[in-house]
Amino acid sequence: MTRTIDLAVIAGDGIGQEVVAEGLKVLDAALQDVTVRTTPYDLGAARWHRTGETLTDEDLAAIRQHDAILLGAVGDPGVPSGVLERGLLLRLRFELDHYVNLRPSKLFPGVVTPLGDPGEIDFVVVREGTEGPYVGNGGAIRVGTPHEVANEVSVNTAFGVERVVRDAFSRAAARPRKKLTLVHKHNVLVHAGHLWRRTVERVNAEFPDVTVDYLHVDAATIFLVTDPGRFDVIVTDNLFGDIITDLAAAVTGGIGLAASGNVNPDGTAPSMFEPVHGSAPDIAGQGKADPTATVLSVALLLAHLGHDDAAARVERAVAADIAGRGTTPRTTSEVGDALAAAV
Ligand code: NAI
Ligand code: MG
What we know:
Layout (H helix, E strand, L loop, with lengths): L3 E9 L2 H16 L4 E6 L4 H7 L5 H8 L3 E6 L9 H13 L4 E7 L15 E7 L9 E4 L7 E4 L5 H16 L5 E6 L5 H15 L6 E6 H10 L6 E4 L1 H14 L7 E5 L7 E5 L16 H13 L3 H16 L8 H11 L1
Parallel strand pairs: 1-2, 1-3, 3-12, 5-10, 8-9, 8-10
Antiparallel strand pairs: 4-5, 4-11, 6-7, 11-12
Helix pairs in contact: 1-9, 1-11, 5-6, 7-8, 9-10, 10-11
The structure holds 1,4-dihydronicotinamide adenine dinucleotide and magnesium ion.
């Protein structure tokens, strides 16, 4: 646990700016005797339009020096698809070795879920963040012709799979239900799938009190809707994790609540915490954005830095706020103020 938090802040574009302001408000309110120092980084669509830059080596070197990163959202409709995803977001994840993409899914009392009566939902997805089909190992030839060849290779290393599986086991071991579900498709993706399966079986020996389950990814989408209560910790690869975490966010109340952490568990570089949603150009600048996902990301940040009590206070404040939400819409800063006061 640190007495100061030296935070890099990438508020980004659109509602990113609005929700991060509220997240910082709650962060300050949650901590006693801890100084938060923030350094803003001008990154995202606005910077790209102005300079053509996504993330320079200088930006990266400066960001590396901080204890953690809080990110709002980046992007606007004027930036071609892939530019900021590859040049900024994925580059940060890869360069800072964020091999654990952490996405908790909890159904807070009072939240409207599209499911009829799902019961209690409280699980966390540990998605691999540095390998899989997202590494850019591919290429295309004869583009635009009937003979085009397009390859996107899924990279799975024994090292990469083992470290994320180990992280998932230790998270499962620390939770009351101690259950880990591997999600893959090892009946079809036999090479990668069996590496994941064997790794889970082997690491399980070190965590004998953790129960292990396996689901093919297509079956996992069924159970996320019909029986989400069966999940405790899910470990999966980069692509499957990307898809099932959006489904998980949808069943637990949607994008305004979904938080995430891009975690470097070894601490060799700062971890990055962000709401799952984007810059929402349709509501940007109107004070309509729900800052709750960012505030819950701040709770993950606090827990990661060892401030567990403060993290728990933030989560309790969010739970109480959600339970008491009426039908009158509140502005972004009204929600932030209420959460900061409750913390
Ligand atoms: P989006 O998440 O920005 O918006 C989808 C829908 O959800 C919109 O109707 C929006 O108004 C609503 N929404 C999102 N966050 C909300 C919040 N906190 N409170 C209330 N409503 C909220 O996804 P979209 O529209 O696909 O992308 C918009 C831009 O954001 C694009 O440029 C995209 O590339 C970028 N993006 C950036 C991400 C990031 O920085 N990590 C992640 C996803 C998208
Ligand atoms: Mg996604």
